[in-house]
């Protein structure tokens, strides 16, 4: 289907519920300060498991964010999603009064990697412990990947295009790209993003099978990509939702275009085949730049996938220079997720939120806890670097083999 | 024995997360479950919980009842007399 060139997708609202902040303001403050909030896993039932470090969202009260009915009927990942969507919509000044009159002009796209593990575990324990008659009916909707999309759209009365991307961690970027396409095709607003809640016993046990998972017990040493001490990644919960809106619609509403989503591409190179991800990620970057009409030298900052597995880190560093050439060794690269953890599909959405905020604030946030880089990259470490980034490249790879790249431009460039 | 408004109120909270006090529920016994905030999955959960608690199957139409009064009348008609 052709997309009219006259329409362009902007970011007009950001809502964050993350381990380092449950509002966009606290998230950005923590990110720009390079705070490391990774800590020992304290979630009930998880303490004895060999995944010792994670990014837990501790400053979140579901009862304060969503209705009692929805707390009972949905999983923690959907509580995060509804809360983040509310924050994003408020940020974009879209209240019920603004959307009720034209419900078909707003849709929802989320990405999900693990679904509702905590809810699912509770009901599956009923199944094994007592029998099928003791499984609650809300199990049928709460643990699905699509739950957050459905609940946000029903709760806010949105009837525009709704979908869920279940495409590995890079699906977070794919969801934003899907939202941008829907906007270019004619829907004014898409609430898009991802939240995850993979810190429940069942979900943790599922992750223990990943050889890329960090087994380090010291939070300060558990997630150090691009260094010789890299020993895997640390998972996280939470995430972000963005309001993706037609630039014309934003202008009509008198809202600033904070950034534009201009290019995206994704490839697939196979589960845990990290050396091969070099070519796949490079191809995704090429595709995203081409769609954005962006020359390699125009990229002002790269938000790296930063898996923390030596072979994967090497592949990513090489992919960046494969496409950006000599510029790839000079362009500032950052990975705020080393201070937050890697929230699966939510990780690249948080990176995208950070990229928008970095362009707004003229500040490239650092990579917490990472020093002594062993790759040919200008990784921003220590403290934030003052800059005037106008174009950001966000990278993401999934453990199952997906690679995606997203190009954003600062709103002033629009 | 029969299922009371009190028990229904308690189950609405437990199974569907909807809080309506027993007194309120008594007053609003002819309101639709949808108006009270209980959807079809919620009512299904309430029926399942009652069956597990009381050890008797509920009538097949129980989950299709539109109002608390209809529901209580129907499920109580299915409770064994004197049980």
TrEMBL record, chain B:
Any Pfam family hit: PP-binding
Highest taxon above the source species: Bacteria
Domain Carrier: 2-83
Family matches, as InterPro entries: ACP-like_sf (IPR036736), PP-bd_ACP (IPR009081)
Protein name listed in UniProt: Acyl carrier protein
Organism: Streptomyces sp. 900105755
